[in-house]
């Protein structure tokens, strides 16, 4: 297992790889959820593909992958509960709000994690300069919220999923750093990766069933391009799972937490494509399809 000390070049590579995956996955997930409004289904597919891929590595001997041992499974069960909740809240927040809102809430998480880092993981508190920078993020987030039209109209109800995401992921980030430590003696970082994804499949599937996501399958656009987007999201999901644990093993929980909103900031420019003629064509086709379905439903009702 890599250690935090003496791996500056390795840590830099891990952070860059993780940041690239994070910014890409946020945009891809937003597009996928637009066409397949079933967050649990999308997440379950990503978890399953990642698990199958890692099992393939184990069977072929391409990588050392830990088997499932109760001593290791137990702490990851707690993490999985938080992990599934954050993924679902993130997906629901993307469904009901925009990418900017997620990034704003996510940008405030490092301030909380830095305190958890100090209280439970034995890290030093951020320097005054770092604390000031984190507070600037909070001030910016508050300014965004107060100026957002959705907040003015619906109050905090407009941010219910994003707020739940904020609190749960703050604890998850600190706990994730703890369980990637050397005390669990994983053979490689594929161990934490398969544990997280395999243990998350059934809980996320259950969440989807309990929330009646299957009833929304008819409203999804099951085109070839949509399935391609889903496949790409599964590939990037596998990559971000591995690089996420890789990065966690090399840097502090606070540093890891700061990376994600920074990476997601790069997706803002990409997300603008959805509002341009390039993305407008796809949206127009989706609207036409929806309109046709509604007209057909009206015709059947009249018959």
TrEMBL record:
<feature type="transmembrane region" description="Helical">
    <location>
        <begin position="45"/>
        <end position="63"/>
    </location>
</feature>
<feature type="transmembrane region" description="Helical">
    <location>
        <begin position="127"/>
        <end position="146"/>
    </location>
</feature>
<feature type="transmembrane region" description="Helical">
    <location>
        <begin position="12"/>
        <end position="33"/>
    </location>
</feature>
<dbReference type="InterPro" id="IPR050186">
    <property type="entry name" value="TPT_transporter"/>
</dbReference>
<dbReference type="InterPro" id="IPR037185">
    <property type="entry name" value="EmrE-like"/>
</dbReference>
<dbReference type="InterPro" id="IPR004853">
    <property type="entry name" value="Sugar_P_trans_dom"/>
</dbReference>
<keyword id="KW-1133">Transmembrane helix</keyword>
<keyword id="KW-0812">Transmembrane</keyword>
<feature type="region of interest" description="Disordered">
    <location>
        <begin position="270"/>
        <end position="291"/>
    </location>
</feature>
<feature type="domain" description="Sugar phosphate transporter">
    <location>
        <begin position="20"/>
        <end position="164"/>
    </location>
</feature>
<protein>
    <recommendedName>
        <fullName>Sugar phosphate transporter domain-containing protein</fullName>
    </recommendedName>
</protein>
<dbReference type="Pfam" id="PF03151">
    <property type="entry name" value="TPT"/>
</dbReference>
<feature type="transmembrane region" description="Helical">
    <location>
        <begin position="222"/>
        <end position="246"/>
    </location>
</feature>
<feature type="transmembrane region" description="Helical">
    <location>
        <begin position="188"/>
        <end position="210"/>
    </location>
</feature>
<feature type="transmembrane region" description="Helical">
    <location>
        <begin position="158"/>
        <end position="176"/>
    </location>
</feature>
<keyword id="KW-0472">Membrane</keyword>
<dbReference type="GO" id="GO:0016020">
    <property type="term" value="C:membrane"/>
</dbReference>
<feature type="transmembrane region" description="Helical">
    <location>
        <begin position="75"/>
        <end position="91"/>
    </location>
</feature>
